[in-house]
Amino acid sequence: MKEQKILAGKRTHMAVRLRVRGSAREGDAHVTGASTRALRLSMATPPARGEIVEVMVGRQSLVGWVRWRIGRRCGIGLAEPINVIALLAGDVVPLVLPPATEMAFQPRRTLMAALASDGPIQGRLLQAVVILAILTCGTAWVLHVAGMTG
After folding, report:
1. What is the pTM of this model?
2. Residue 52 neighbours by CB under 8 Å, 6+ apart
3. Each residue of 42-78: pLDDT tens digit?
């Protein structure tokens, strides 16, 4: 039951080896399940519930705390979300950024760069027609307002 709480997100079942370092000991473990915010581990002597641990995947370190412990298994809640596919592949496990945060790190395109893009010709023609229509309406509005005041 407690395992379902910690892995409430989309779960991936796997078998990846890593090291876990707690306050009292360090040992090898196998990841038997993972989500973006939690790991389910199997190890000889799991750390105590509530203990803060460091999970070492290759040269990368993930920080979390023991949410539950049953026999030789335990659930680790992670401080930051991870990329589960990268963990499965044995790659460096990058953090998963929320879409709004990820967009903040994307380079922004200027209006001129967007207008000069190499998109399909139909899209570029439609874009040109819309821009001309906006310019025409704007010019007509300015002339109308100028005629009313003059």
Report:
1. 0.53
2. 22, 23, 63, 64, 65
3. 999 899 999 999 988 877 788 999 999 999 999 999 9
